[in-house]
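#random but structural
TW: two for the price of one
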Amino acid sequence: MRPHDHMGWVFNGPSEFAALAEPFLAEGAALGERLMYVPADPDPADVARLMSVVGPDAIEVSGVAEVYGPDGIVDPLGQRATFEAAVTSALAAGYSGIRVAADNTSLVTDEERLAAWIKWEVVADRFIAGSQMTGLCAF
């Protein structure tokens, strides 16, 4: 995947998410992108393995609640601002953009969350198309 790409992927369990994210993030590291790994709840063993592959300075690890909000209901414009700031910061630090691997399962668990997520996806697609961001949304 390259900047402006955005895809969804299905996985089964937290360790499978880490295994899915690893090659995606390694590709981003090779492209000089700032990496964001967003599992539901970061597992230290998974994080250590990812850091050994991409380097500890290239990756930011945050839980879903930290990135998308504690209630799990995504605010599309607020979320756009979050990622816009991340892109700006990465570019200022000399990275070529950002690459985000996020476990978004908890953000689509009921009708209210799913409706908010669908609105966010429209905003996200437009944002990603015009910025130095590559996104992997996993469920």
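TW: number two ↓
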Amino acid sequence: PDEAAPVETADAAPATEAEAEDVSATGFIRPGDTVPDSVTAEEGDIPRDSYGRPFTYAFLGKELPPFTGTMVNGTEFSSSSLYGRWTVVDVWGLWCGDCMADAKYVAALSNAIAKDGDMSFLSIHTPPNAKRADEAFGRYGSVDAYFEEKGYSYPTLIDTDASIRDMLEIAWTPSYLLVAPDGTVQGFRSELAAADGTPVKDFMRDIASVRSSYTPLEVEAE
């Protein structure tokens, strides 16, 4: 789990019957979705489930901030290239156990998206934070070594110092963002491995639902 996950204390009040029915934040979240009534947020934080997963995302329904960086293959990347296509952005790290649990699902997700000519997939590998940048690659030492061992291959941007993570206000890894052709974030979800059902198929169905009903907001002329 992320280091931002809340920590339970020994003197916590006993859970009520309603609170005992733990609500998990592993589903697909769209702009306008409401946080369950039973969920509260710690002061200065966002609403999370008992494991720490967020029930919302800072840029949900808003334009994703522009960012640039270097891909794992050495090429330069600009987020301006995301415009014009639906894109799933996966923010993760080799240091993150939940990300590793999602690995096989991410590989399947990237393959499913590759079959859709109107979609693209972008992976952003990030450390937990700037102070722990030296922990970013875990036992593998690099994303290249990880891909070689697992046989994976998908577009990956390397966030060396967590600056992209901070810019995008990522509060949990792994986080998955559905970015519309106009650059706005129209969907968010966390761990695939922790969800019920068939995570990749369900995610692709959620994406299809958004795409079929989405109408870009008209920008007023100055």
